[in-house]
Amino acid sequence: MEDPYDFMLGENLLKSPPNFETAHYHNVNGQFKLKKAQIIHREIVNNSNRCPCCYLPVQTIKYPILVDVNVFSNCGTSYKYFKLLKTYFILLSILLQLEYLLHSIIAGLYNLIQNSKGDQCINDQSCKNNLNNQLSILNRFDPENYQDDVLDVLYAIAFIVQLVFIRYITHQTNDYFNVDHDYDSEKTIQICSLKISSINTQWKRNTILEHFRNGMLESIPFQYNIIDCCLIYDIYHLENELKLQIREVYKKEKSRRLTIKLIDRSLQDILRKTVNQFYTMSNSKKYLKFTGSVYITLSDQQEAINFKKQFKRNFCLEQCPRPSDVIWKKIRSNGNPKLQLIKTAIALCGWLPNIAIEVAKNDYILSNPGKSQDQYQINTLLSLVTALILFLSSKICIHTIHNYVKQSFQDSKRQYWKQYLQMNEVIICIMFYLGPPIFVAVYSGEGTRQEKLWRSGGLSEDIIMIILVNAGLQILFTIMDIGQAWKLIKIIYYKYFNKGSNLTQFEANKLFSKKLNFNKKRVDLTILVFQCSYYGYLFPICYPITLISLLIIYWLNKYQFINNGTNQKIQFKYRLSKIMTFMVIASQLGSTQIIKITYLGYTSNQAFNYIYYAKCIILIYLFWIKPELLFKKRTQTNKTNLDLVSSLQNNDLYPKYNPVVNENHLNSLSQQQSSLDMVVQLRLSRQQKYYEALQIKLLREIEELEKSELSTVQKNHIRPIQEDVN
């Protein structure tokens, strides 16, 4: 077999201009009708060709679209996103089916028939006759005399069945729809691990293992079974030393080169041979600065507890985060933290301009009362534009808050920030989508509340446009999001208009790659479900629209996941939390009463009934007093060696996430245990990706420094002499 060092370096990703065919071949269905290398495959074709970049096979048999999502459990936790989609679909379909299908043999048409029999829309001259208005409950909503006990009972039954379903999936460990299943799998590694600080920085890995394996337990010699030990190195020290070394070597090469072309090649060659795991390890004394902290994983939880008692006197021991949650390199904020906080506060107030936009739209409709078809279409278009503005402003708010949280993120406060972000989703949904439309329709402008509701561009069309925009854009962004569209523009620009650019092969490969962020998709999905739950009673057509969109989103995302594949395990860390579940149920509860409160006023004997009070009492009792009846109580049990082994089947230890070096891999290579699988693992390892990205980062930084130095020299060289000026 060839030298593993040559395998590790692989293709020169710093070459410029890049080969777009290679980038296309690696990420997309490319030459000779071969499957792309990054696909999630079921089998590998015998003697398959391999991608020159990552060395993965390109002739594979992929999974069918109808495959069980649990098959993808070995590809990370992304399969839980599809479980969450199914759970949301069932929760909404329970309400839809019970509302339509439970009353009798023809119960499926009950609500639709009753609504279509109404005459409120016909009697109101401002009402726009369309399917949405005619099937709305407001079409039979007489403010003077309205009561439908049958519908209220059906909603109450649906409410109870939803709670029973939630209780079932949270208590059944192996249920197909249980998002909580295996949620704590990686936490087993965390519980059996400890972060040890205040270690002598001169100690090596073997010295640390030898020291901590031998201890005392109640004055009795005890041998600790340490599964793994991961040293933490100073990443900033590594990057700075590599940068200084490359610049020093580059200046020597520069003095012996004459042409710019040779200089460029020399710099890229130096970077490629210097910035990699092998060079770093062979010069570890210079580049690897041990911080005095390690992650140690023991065989079971009880052993970790005994270990902590034994060594806490001489060392600083603390519970470490899950391996995939470790922040190896603290983010250094280039901006002012106070300024970022101000931006976040401004973003949270982004719903206020939306109210002004809604008011301006209503004023325009009042000032243009024409009933021509063109005016109706203009008013409908205004509702569409308003919904798009709400969507855009909410996205900006979410993005700003996430950036602030990312900069403020600390390991010790990780759970706090997760809860904050979940509450933030609820608050944003209320501020941007639930509050402003109804507030403006009821309390602003001239005209009766019925006119503000029915007219073209009124509340009715505003709500439907909000649902359609959020559902439609989620489907569209599943196919191609904004990031992918921007990458496509860059590909066209560099491939056809700027062929002589300094774009590298690594950057070209990145342009063709597609990153799947299921955590971001989950936020959009939750907001859509909130909207449907809140407005579904008022406009029942929201339910079929949302359910159809959920089906499309599910299959499109599954197709994207199978065909775009992943070069690392995709993480989707989410469970059916109490906060989000409560808000989904509470929004349905409020949906049945919001229109009554709006049109009948705040008189309790008109707006509320005994069924509503009963549901409120049940909800408060289950979520605040006895949550264990609904959610399975998470009891702390000791994790044994079998639990740890089971967890390691689908999760990785800390060294695999360490971006600087995975000493376990390098030890195998040094012992000449390398194989084709080992080479593929190295090509796809997090360390390889870190060094590839670092090569580009240092290349651009050194180029900027060279340009600045050259411009300074030129300025000094052409500076006019005072005598010449005179």
TrEMBL record:
Signal peptide residues on this chain, from the entry's feature table: none
Transmembrane residue ranges: 88-110, 153-170, 381-401, 421-443, 463-486, 534-556, 576-595, 607-625
Keywords: Membrane, Transmembrane, Transmembrane helix
Domain of life: Eukaryota
GO MF, any single term: calcium-activated cation channel activity
Keyword ATP-binding: no
CC annotations in GO: plasma membrane
Name of the protein this chain belongs to: CSC1/OSCA1-like cytosolic domain-containing protein
